[in-house]
Amino acid sequence: MAATWIDLLDPTPEELRAKAPKQLEETALEQLLALPEHADDPRPTLQGHGDYVFGIFLVAVAVPEDDSVYYQEIDLVITHDTLLTVRKTPEGGRPACDVAAMQKTQKPDDSAGLLAYRLLDEIAERYLDLVDALDDEIDELEDKVEGQPAELTRARISTLRHDLLHIRRTLSPMRDAVRRVIDGTVEVEQGPEVFPREVEVALNAAYDKFLRASDALDLARDLLAGVRDYSQAKIANDQNEVMKVLTVVASLVLLPTFIVGLYGQNFVDIPELRWQWGYGFSWGLIVVTTALQLWWYRRKRWF
Hints:
By secondary structure, the chain is α+β, with helices and mostly antiparallel strands. The protein contains 7 helices and 5 strands; from the N terminus they run βααββββααααα.
């Protein structure tokens, strides 16, 4: 007998109570209707309750146009013959997971656990795509380090770092939840089993994708740290160049200042003061010494 897949998008309490399995507890209904209080809620999980399994998963969606990432919560209630999914549209976002397309591929002998596997596999695939998109963003940022202002680079690094941390907070518990199913620790307390052995084996594919996404996330974090170090090194190098120019300018002014100060002393017996060409001599001395310094700095490639 084929399992039933019931999908609800932002249901009202009446719609949810009409479609939900009869044995669903009131606390589970409240959780299905609840909206997250802040960005870090809810924490993904998968737990057995009575004769059903209750799960919370988050689908991450990258928006390259806005350089942002938003999350859609998908709650699952899995019984032996029914899969209930409740999708919650995020504020300012849109539904991210096309459940209708997956429902069309359902086979007559598919169990509710197998349907849940396909949904989890799709979520894991989306996280792989998300990390790939973040890698592209980091590569693009690295290319812009040389040309754009340092303030923009720092702001973008901060945003990407926040996105990576948030993804890790959602990805890790989902990976661990799938692992618990494979290990057989997510079980119903009564009634037929929800995840038969063939489903546990199939879930290895989804777990592998979550694991690959976690490893790719670590690599993306290292790449972002490299961009940060490169940006800081560029800032330090730019400051060194500025200091080098200022040092050269100060050196160029030093000798003329000495010459002017020398002939500006209030002594009577300064020969050049009574010399007809004394004024021109002092200017010539300034020009010659400055030119010699410029030649020397150019030869040393100091500017």
